[in-house]
């Protein structure tokens, strides 16, 4: 195909890696998607919008692809679900098998008693929705990312949300997703790692117990930040590092005893100290991060593992072990009961929940006072009663 160069685009990658590209889709308008560490931008064509995920950018109608790359100082490598520039000092860790997680969710959705395993996610989804009601304003456009079977949407009303998009990786979970009775809702099949909403188009993004399966969490936070309008907010919950520590320790000790070594059976989780740094790097302001613990008691370790499978929360890391021996499982169940068991014969399972709130900066938001503008010393905190009486008298005198 003959090439007619319409326009050149110059992109500056992280650490000043530069390249220029020439595109020639005749009668089309296309922008090359690029990756500046962890931000995806779309390319557009007059015949539609297409995200480049596994292939080079092309037009949905004519199939025109990137033809020339000139003045390129570093090669552009194509890896699964990633464009990376060789030589960068930072890279995205690929820990979880996203396709395996999608299959696990689809299999869980096909169970006849799938509703029995929603107890934990329904409770956390209600707590996330409750945080929305703490904000005294209405959000015209909202997104529930990783909605599952609908754990936040049913708790929302039209007083807080005008329109809701429910996004989910699993098509069967999405079909079963419950919606609000008063909020218009549209369901979208979306991978959480590729948040493809337009820039400055969303007022609030909600997510409950889904982000802990995302490989590129900093990149997702930046994509959400780009899609949020000014003064928009992200409210999410995810499992913390202490989740299922009893099960993790029991399996490790059992494998060491029976097999002479152990493999990771519990997926890695985010630590609370890391969330603030990730949100700050992504550009959020007025951050709030808090933790909560939910303990659920089970008859034995096997009921716990069965419920985790029913929740579609079984292990999906690339390094997961394909087979767990029967002797090891029996030994782990005994260790679990001996080390952590309750007096009534049950075993506890700890779920640490991390809640985060981050706002997109705006000029109308409250700003901290200037340094040195304080009028009260920290030493006077113990005398607050006397100070409050003094201030009340001053106010009364001013009113007179």
UniProtKB/TrEMBL annotation:
Record-linked SUPFAM superfamilies: S-adenosyl-L-methionine-dependent methyltransferases
UniProt entry keywords in alphabetical sequence: Methyltransferase, Transferase
Domain of life where this protein originates: Eukaryota
Region listing for Disordered, in residue ranges: 365-400
Short name of any one Pfam family annotated for the protein: Methyltransf_11
UniProt biased composition (Basic and acidic residues): 387-400
Residue span(s) of domain Methyltransferase type: 144-235
Record's protein name: Arginine-hydroxylase NDUFAF5, mitochondrial
Annotated organism of origin: Limulus polyphemus (Atlantic horseshoe crab)
